[in-house]
């Protein structure tokens, strides 16, 4: 986490040396460099989503949209994440957007949980089941935040908010 947050390359050999461990120990714990980085990114994202939720306004779909918008903006502005994506584009996309990795499934689970809580409170009636909606919200954010530079969408959090609002059935301001 220390290296990542300071924009330094997450180098397994360097981390092992700093900790006085063998490189194989780190691989035994995490499996691969991608999984180590995925764990770091997921852990770094969790408090961002909690803070976004705590600051969100409205109720039901409006609160969800405000939460997701705040979270997306924090991700777009996160220097360490931006540097990782710029410096190691292929690895970053693989780590962040793979359903077989640790980042996407955890973010989907967190987003789905937020949607489900609004449903349980009776404040929101989603257009599709919460797990499908959570997955769609995350994949959409991945496209806007990381992937689609060709379409002119990468980093366009205002347009992302509009599309997420449409998915949630909420008018975006």
Keywords:
mainly alpha, 173 residues, single chain
Summarize the structure.
The protein has helices at residues 2-5, 12-19, 23-30, 33-55, 61-77, 79-87, 89-97, 103-120, 130-147, 157-168.
Taken from the alpha-carbon principal axes, the silhouette is elongated
Overall pLDDT metric: 91
Spans where pLDDT lies below 50 across 5 or more residues: none
* Category from helices, strands and their pairing: mainly alpha
The amount of helix comes to over 70%
N-to-C series of helices and strands: HHHHHHHHHH
Number of helices: 10
Span of the ends, CA to CA: 36 Å
Number of strands: 0
Strand content bin: under 5%
State the domain count. Answer: 1
* Main pleated sheet: none
* Radius of gyration from the alpha-carbon trace, in angstroms: 17 Å
Explain what you see.
This protein has helices spanning 2-5, 12-19, 23-30, 33-55, 61-77, 79-87, 89-97, 103-120, 130-147, 157-168. The protein has 173 residues and is mostly helical. The chain has one domain (34-168). α2 (12-19) packs across α3, α6 (79-87) packs across α7 (89-97) and α8 crosses α9 (130-147). The longest helix has 23 residues, at 33-55.
